[in-house]
């Protein structure tokens, strides 16, 4: 019986393609890749926030998020009357796309946005550059935390180039962590 199991395992591994093996290798959380991702996010400063509209189409806009914390959680502010607040109320799944034009590198962070309702937490994560746009921080700004679930990235300078055949970027899957700062 044991020989039969070994035989079937050996047969199954013959059909694993190199692309599948490569994907499994790059999917494990990797501290050095996450450091590179954080550096790209900091260098880019601005990113595109991508959500879903009521018809299921993507909606993208530029935002000025905070720098990522040690868990790559980022925060952003918007007016409570914006379309994005309505969209996030329906579906909190988001993508944040950062592009560093100098290094020709990018990071796409896939995660979930959570509205910060506690005033002390809102003050703690507040970015000074937001104040001219939201003079009444308590009622005039909605602040969200985006907790990453997956990161895709390409950084030729750091030899993070993805798959050479299908151009799939390097992917790091993260366990959902609570947004903290």
What does this structure look like?
There is one protein chain. This protein has about 180 residues and is an alpha+beta fold. The protein has one domain: Electron Transport, Fmn-binding Protein, Chain A (Pnp Oxidase, Chain A). Helices cover about 30% and strands about 30% of the residues. The protein has six helices and seven strands, in the order αααβββαββααββ. Strands 1, 2, 3, 4, 5, 6 and 7 form a seven-stranded antiparallel beta sheet that branches. The longest helix is centred in the first third of the chain and has 14 residues, at about 30-45. It is globular and about 50 Å long. About 25% of the residues are buried.
In the CATH scheme, what's the topology name?
Pnp Oxidase, Chain A
Helical amount: 25-40%
Task: Please report which band the strand proportion falls in: under 5%, 5-15%, 15-25%, 25-35%, 35-45% or over 45%.
Answer: 25-35%
Number of domains: 1
Q: What is the assigned CATH homologous superfamily?
A: Electron Transport, Fmn-binding Protein, Chain A
Helix/strand/pairing category: alpha+beta
Quick description:
This protein is 31% helix and 30% strand. It has helices at residues 2-14, 18-27, 31-44, 83-90, 119-125, 137-140, and strands at residues 47-52, 58-63, 74-78, 93-100, 105-116, 142-154, 170-173.
Question: Which terms would index this structure?
Answer:
alpha+beta, 181 residues, 7-stranded antiparallel β-sheet, 7 strands, Pnp Oxidase, Chain A, disordered N terminus
């Amino acid at each position: 019986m044991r020989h039969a199991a070994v035989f079937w395992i050996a047969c199954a591994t013959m059909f694993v393609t190199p692309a599948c093996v490569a994907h499994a290798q790059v999917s494990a959380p990797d501290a050095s890749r996450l450091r590179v991702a954080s550096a790209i996010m900091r260098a880019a400063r601005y990113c595109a926030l991508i959500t879903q509209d009521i018809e299921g189409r993507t909606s993208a806009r530029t935002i000025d998020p905070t720098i990522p914390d040690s868990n790559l959680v980022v925060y952003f502010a918007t007016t409570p009357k914006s379309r994005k607040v309505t969209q996030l109320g329906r579906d909190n799944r988001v993508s944040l796309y950062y592009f560093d034009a100098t290094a020709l590198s990018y990071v796409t962070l896939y995660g979930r946005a959570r509205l910060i309702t506690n005033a002390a937490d809102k003050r703690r994560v507040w970015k000074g550059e937001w104040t001219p746009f939201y003079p009444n921080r308590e009622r005039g700004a909605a602040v969200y935390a985006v907790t990453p679930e997956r990161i895709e990235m390409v950084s030729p300078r750091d030899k993070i180039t993805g798959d050479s055949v299908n151009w799939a970027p390097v992917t790091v899957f993260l366990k959902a962590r609570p947004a903290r700062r």
